[in-house]
Fold these 2 entries.
Entry 1:
Amino acid sequence: MSVSSSNPPDGLSLGAGELWAGLRFHAARLATGMPGYGATLGDEDPGPFRLFPATIDKGDAARGQAVLDGIFPFAGQTVKRTDAVWEPADVSAEWLAAMHGFHWLHDLIALGGPAAHQRAVALIMDWIDQNREWSAAAWSAPVLGARVRAWIFGFHTLFGGMDEMAQRRLRKSLARQVAHLDRVAAHESDG
């Protein structure tokens, strides 16, 4: 049986740039679950930030106190944990997206004080340690974009006075996340 169509097969009507972007996305999507994908994201420190953008997000100190106390109330669910917070059992995808998206970081910043500052840095460093490799919950474009934004806007407040080793770890992680986001953002997000 032969099928004739005046329309070109999927992808052939795209311009060269769009076709290349689509191929990059599909290659990245296939590779994400394979061992060693993380190595393709690099491990270079891009160097110190030259600009420290002012955040327009005004956190909520009461929510910051809850996070400080190990209470994570997101997406209609509340999880109480002081450790292993990144993949708790029996939570919704929306809760995981909120947790991994780090919008709550602004709440800890709004709370202020040494304890909130230390908790924020500890959670960021723990995320870096626990999420070096790709996972659907932590590395989808919308979640990753929210996290990168939160970390960049909170960098000066949280890491400005920190030792260079902590700053370097955060910058390396940001560079890896942005490399992955560059590969998938156009195809995983809607704006």
Note: The helical segments are 16-32, 61-68, 93-101, 105-111, 114-130, 136-139, 141-159, 164-188.
Entry 2:
Amino acid sequence: MQAQIYLSEGKYKQALACANEAIRMLSDGENYCYLANSMETKSRIELELKDYTNYAKTIVACINIASLHISHLQADKFIDSLAEVLSNRGNLTK
């Protein structure tokens, strides 16, 4: 949640630090929905930072977690939200 606040404020480095900490903590547990959500937030931060290599890696990991550990309905909804983020960004080279 804090990472999303920093992201909306344009404080990308703080947002990334919060997202990474959330991912680290959630990776040890079994709450995959929160983990996938934190990774989705991290991917949006990386996109804003124009860190396209790590963005792509995060998206792939996020989709893998969603498809393996979250119910199909939730995973489909989650993957649709990732697609929406991409479509709203348009051309990544802008």
Note: The chain has five helices and no strands.
